[in-house]
Amino acid sequence: MKFEWENLGLVFSVEQNRRLLPGYINSHAQAPNTIIFDDYVRIYFCSRTLSDRERNVTSVGLYADCLPNENFRIIAVSQEPIIELGEMGEFDEFGTYPISILHEKNEFTAIYGGWSRPLEVPFEVSLGLARSSDGKKFIKSGNGPILGANESEPFVITSPKIRKFGDLYVLAYTSGIKWFKHDGKLEITYRIRIAFSKDKVNWDRFGNEIISTVLGDDEAQACPDIYFKDGEYHMFFCYRNSINFRAEKEHSYKLGYARSNDLMNWTRNDNQSKFQGDFPLWCINMQAYPHVFDFHDSTYMLFLGNETGKFGFGAAKLVNKNGI
Fold first, then answer.
1. What's the pTM value of the predicted model, to 2 decimals?
2. What is the rounded distance in angstroms from the CA atom of residue 151 to the CA atom of residue 34?
3. Sequence-distant (≥ 6) Cβ neighbours of residue 46 within 8 angstroms
4. Which residues, 6+ apart, have CB-to-CB distance to 248 below 8 Å?
5. pLDDT digits (tens, 9 = 90+) for 172-190
6. Does residue 257 contact residue 235 with C-beta atoms inside 8 Å?
7. d(CA 51, CA 19)
8. Complete domains list, the chain, with CATH
9. Which of 26, 104, 270, 288 has its CA 20 to 30 A from that of 55?
10. Distance (Å, rounded) from C-alpha 24 to C-alpha 53?
């Protein structure tokens, strides 16, 4: 079983769409996630803007309604962030990134990364929950996180992707395993984790890393997205080296793939998910933060390119549909 993708190009350009969201897109369009409607998809993403709190860089959640069968033509955009930043001292004071949305009947649920700024390291992230009746404006469930550090996951709980399979809610996410210094700069290594819930509020963590590494102990993994097809769970994620990933192409984010029958035991084989041809310039150095979804009779992947979505996000279309 293989996934073969045709690259559709950069479908949301920061430069072209900055004017649609004045004041909220300073740079980047990151971590795209979709909600599917009958005739269009709503793509939630996060953009970097400037905070009025000592001018710290901040990420906010936005959305664009698009037509995938017309190369993701935009038909509507949010006019303000979907979730407000936290108050002073709260876990999400400096950012709401990434954001993952689940739609059930008349309720939209968001699981998002809330950013704070500790003294000794550049950032700390925990996961918060917010709800909406229209998918446009979300109200937080409280002032604190629903998933934060614990004994086995001591810091940086991030990259949430919430899915529902049967009556079980599944949260794939990323947990920091170590901070370290390289050339005088603090860096972090992440690994993929998974948790399960019946109510979206109380989560049972599996407690172990679930994806093997191909780069050794210093492999950083991020943004796991689980897609169910033909009786199997397929995980699309990204991975990189923990050092020199910003400047060196061979150390930057690449797309990974694993499959499972039970959501806890995963077999990794990155070669089972491949793009046709060479990557174009906008994503030649980096491919990251994949999100896979079905719309009408087609399967698509949204993903980030160079500099982790600095220029926007792109899309790919599954071309061997009968092969899966």
1. 0.95
2. 33
3. 28, 29, 30, 31, 59, 60, 61, 62, 96, 97, 98, 99
4. none
5. 999 999 999 998 899 999 9
6. yes
7. 19
8. 3-323 (2.115.10.20)
9. 288
10. 15
The 10s digit of each residue's pLDDT in 231-243 is 999 999 999 999 8
Question: Given phi > 0 = left and psi -120 to 50 = alpha, else beta, which region is 94?
Answer: alpha
Burial of 61 by CB count in 10 Å (0-12 exposed, 13-18 middle, 19+ buried)?
A: buried
Distance CA 263, CA 134 (A): 30
C-alpha Rg value of the chain to the nearest Å? 18
CA nearest to 227, candidates 288, 158, 318, 110: 318
Count Cβ neighbours within 10 Å for each residue of 98-107 and write b for 16 or more, e otherwise: bbbbbbeeee
**Maximal CA-CA distance, the chain:** 53
Q: Environment class of residue 134 by beta-carbon count within 10 Å: exposed (0-12), middle (13-18) or buried (19+)?
A: exposed
Bridge partners (DSSP) of residue 181 are: 186
Q: Kindly compute the dihedral angle of the four CA atoms of residues 7, 9, 10, 11, in this order, to the nearest 10 degrees.
A: -90
Residue with tokens 């409607």: 37
Quote the CA–CA distance of 226 and 224 in Å, as a whole number: 7
Cα–Cα distance measured from residue 158 to residue 173, given in angstroms and rounded to the nearest whole number: 6
| CB-CB contact of 101 with 135 (8 Å) | yes
Q: How confident is the model at residue 50 (pLDDT cuts 50, 70, 90)?
A: low
